[in-house]
């Protein structure tokens, strides 16, 4: 019997072969969803990786909002190179199949495109995004990365389903001893129709896994030792303006 190509490449093999079990596991998340308020509720406390995830249900939104925070090894230079390397999001961003820069407006504003691998049986998603970077400044030691979906920026590309939101505000603050504090808040609307268990799986695992990917990438020699010019100056603790 010929195995569909999708099964060969999907990293969510656990989800593919045990979807009913996964759906059962997510029953606790469904229960949490009904209890969420508009205040952050702790969902996961990964003490091994120093990473916490939170959720809340905001008025007027279909799905939960998320927040993840972590302290990780890395420099501001490496983080900026990672976040502006638009061709390589698949190396660290959850379920990114491909990505590319669409337009550079300025050193602090970009439009880019990402395709996402969806759970088995669900059409893959794509999204056009606008990124605005707010550099550090005197009395503002952190850099802010704001990303918002712009669904109509480019024509839809069937069979991909266009995501309606993949909105995030990420604050990156340098700490002593070569560490960074990363706090990322956001909201995702996958667009189209998607079963509740699939949405819950994405919302529970996506932000957490993305920060783990960031944590790993910040240690890659290709980024740590890169000499390519930065789009603007960044500062670590020892040379803050």
Automatic annotation (TrEMBL):
According to the entry, every stretch annotated as the START domain falls at 40-223
Q: Cite the entry's keywords alphabetically.
A: Signal
Matches recorded under PROSITE patterns: START (PS50848)
Molecular function via GO: lipid binding
Q: Do you know which Pfam families this protein is assigned to?
A: START
Q: Where is the signal peptide?
A: 1-23
Instruction: Respond yes or no to whether keyword Oxidoreductase is given for this record.
Output: no
UniProt protein name: START domain-containing protein
Q: Which organism is it from?
A: Agitococcus lubricus
């Amino acid at each position: 019997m010929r195995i569909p190509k999708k099964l060969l490449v999907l990293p969510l093999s656990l989800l593919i072969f045990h979807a009913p079990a996964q759906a059962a596991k997510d029953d606790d998340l469904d229960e949490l969803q009904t209890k969420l308020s508009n205040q952050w509720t702790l969902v996961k406390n990964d003490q091994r990786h120093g990473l916490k995830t939170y959720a809340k249900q905001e008025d007027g939104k279909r799905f939960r909002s998320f927040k993840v925070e972590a302290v990780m090894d890395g420099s501001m230079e490496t983080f900026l190179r990672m976040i502006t390397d638009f061709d390589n999001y698949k190396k660290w961003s959850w379920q990114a199949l491909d990505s590319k820069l669409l337009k550079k407006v300025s050193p602090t504003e970009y439009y880019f495109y990402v395709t996402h691998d969806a759970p088995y049986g669900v059409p893959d998603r794509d999204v056009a995004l606008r990124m605005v970077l707010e550099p550090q400044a005197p009395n503002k030691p952190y850099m802010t990365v704001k990303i918002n979906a712009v669904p109509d920026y480019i024509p839809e590309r069937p069979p991909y389903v266009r995501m309606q939101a993949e909105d995030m505000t990420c604050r990156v603050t340098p700490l002593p001893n070569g560490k960074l504090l990363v706090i990322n808040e956001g909201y995702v609307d996958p667009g189209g129709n998607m079963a509740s268990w699939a949405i819950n799986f994405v919302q529970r695992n996506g932000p957490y896994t993305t920060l783990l990917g960031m944590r790993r990438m910040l240690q890659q020699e290709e980024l740590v030792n890169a000499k390519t010019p930065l789009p603007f100056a960044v500062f670590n603790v020892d040379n803050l303006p």
